[in-house]
Design a protein that fits this description.
Blueprint: E1 2-3, H1 10-18, E2 27-32, H2 38-43, E3 50-55, H3 61-70, E4 76-78, E5 85-86, H4 90-100, E6 104-114, H5 131-137, E7 150-152, H6 153-157, H7 169-178, E8 182-194, H8 202-221, H9 229-240, H10 247-267, H11 272-294, H12 297-305, H13 314-327
Parallel strand pairs: 1-2, 2-3, 6-8
Antiparallel strand pairs: 4-7, 5-8, 6-7
Helix pairs in contact: 5-11, 9-10, 10-11, 11-12, 11-13
Length: about 325
C-alpha cells in the first residue's frame, strides 16, 4: 500500500485489510514523503502485521511500489491503494484460487467504483475473466484493476514496475506478464475503487498519452505493425472514444481493426478466437458511439464491416434497440 498525502482515506483502507477473513498476511505501507498526517495515522496501529516504511522525500508511485515489493516476504503479493477498500473475503478468495490453479500467475477481480465520500457510482466494473481474452484486450486497454490484483511473489520480483514509464506503469507490467503467463480475473466484486473528482492536469494527460502510445507501439510491433501517428490516434480512440462521430471515423476504425486481425492471422500472437471476441466487442462499442450520426444505418454497418464473426447476444439487441430509439 503506497501512500502519499493519504490522511483522508488511509485509515479505511488499512482497516479493510486488517479485518480480512484470511489472517496470515503482512501489510506493507510505504509513506512516500507525505506532508499531511498520513504517517501519524499509520503509526497508531499496534498490529504486528503492519510493516511501515517512510521515504525521506517523495520518490513517486513506481519507486514506492517496487520498494514495497522488495521488502515483502509472502508467497503472494496483493495491491491496494491507500484510498481504496478491500472486501473482507478478498485475500481469502484470491489465495485459495492461486493455491488450486497453479497455471494462473496472477488474479484480479471486478471492482465497484465509489466517489470521494464513499457513495457507490453506477454499476460494477466488469473485466474479462479468461487469460486469453485478457491478453487480447490488453492490446487495446488495461483490463486488470491494480487495487484488486494478487500475483505470485517470485514472478513479480523478477518483473518490477518500469521506472521509465511514469504513467500506465501497471498497464505495461500486465502486458509484459501476459506474454508468457496466465492472468485472470475472478467474476465478482472484491474491491471498492475510489474515483476522485479532481481533474487530471493537462500536462499529466499529455504524459499519460505519451506513455500509452509508447506501450502500444511496442505491442503492435510484435504483430509486425509499425503504426502511423494517425493509426495511433484511432487506436487510442478505441479506448477513450474521444473523437466526434463521423462516417470517416467509423471506416478508419474498421480498417484498423481489420489490419490487426490480418496481422494476427500471420503471426499468431493472440489466440484468434479470443481476439475475434475482443474485436467484435470493440466494434460494437464503436458503432454505438457513432449511432447518433448514422441512425439505423449503423446496424447495417455493424454487420457489414464487423472485423470478426458477430455474436448474437443481449448486447446486440440492446445496441439495435438504441439505434431504433434514436431513429424514432
Amino acid at each position: 500500500m503506497p501512500a502519499f498525502n493519504a490522511a483522508k482515506y488511509i485509515e479505511a483502507a488499512i482497516d479493510s485489510v486488517l479485518i480480512q477473513t484470511y489472517r496470515n498476511f503482512e501489510l506493507i505501507v510505504v509513506d512516500d514523503g507525505s506532508t499531511d498526517a498520513t504517517s501519524e495515522i499509520v503509526q497508531r496501529y499496534a498490529d504486528a502485521r503492519v510493516k511501515f516504511y517512510i521515504n525521506s522525500v517523495n520518490k513517486g508511485l513506481i519507486y514506492t511500489r517496487n520498494f514495497a515489493i522488495a521488502n515483502s516476504n509472502g508467497d503472494y503479493i496483493a495491491f491496494l491503494d491507500s484510498d481504496d477498500i478491500a472486501f473482507p473475503t478478498r485475500l481469502e478468495k484470491q489465495v485459495c484460487f492461486l493455491e488450486v490453479e497453479p497455471s494462473a500467475a496472477g488474479v484480479g477481480a471486478f471492482v465497484q467504483s465509489i466517489d470521494s465520500n464513499g457513495a457507490i457510482r453506477g454499476k460494477p466494473w466488469r473485466y474479462p475473466t479468461q487469460a486469453k481474452e485478457i491478453k487480447a484486450l490488453l492490446l487495446f486497454k488495461i483490463c486488470i484493476n491494480t487495487s484488486s490484483f494478487m500475483i505470485r511473489s517470485n514472478l513479480l520480483k523478477n518483473n518490477l514496475f518500469d521506472l521509465d514509464i511514469p504513467y500506465a506503469e501497471d498497464y505495461a507490467l500486465y502486458i509484459q506478464l501476459s506474454k508468457n503467463n496466465n492472468l485472470v480475473n475472478l467474476p465478482e466484486v472484491l474491491t471498492f475503487y475510489r474515483v476522485h473528482s479532481k481533474n487530471t492536469s493537462k500536462e499529466k494527460k499529455t504524459e499519460l498519452s505519451r506513455c500509452l502510445d509508447m506501450i502500444t507501439l511496442a505491442e503492435l510491433r510484435s504483430l509486425n505493425i509499425n503504426a502511423s501517428p494517425d493509426e495511433l490516434i484511432i487506436h487510442r480512440y478505441l479506448e477513450w472514444f474521444n473523437l466526434p462521430p463521423s462516417v470517416e471515423l467509423l471506416q478508419n476504425c474498421c480498417d484498423w481493426l481489420n489490419k490487426i486481425k490480418a496481422a494476427n492471422l500471420s503471426f499468431h500472437i493472440y489466440d484468434q478466437s479470443s481476439l475475434d471476441k475482443t474485436l467484435n466487442s470493440i466494434w460494437m462499442s464503436v458503432c454505438k458511439h457513432n449511432a447518433s450520426n448514422l441512425g439505423l444505418r449503423i446496424i447495417f454497418e455493424y454487420f457489414k464491416n464487423n472485423p470478426s464473426r458477430f455474436v448474437v447476444n443481449l448486447d446486440l439487441f440492446r445496441f439495435a434497440f438504441k439505434a431504433l430509439v434514436r431513429k424514432c
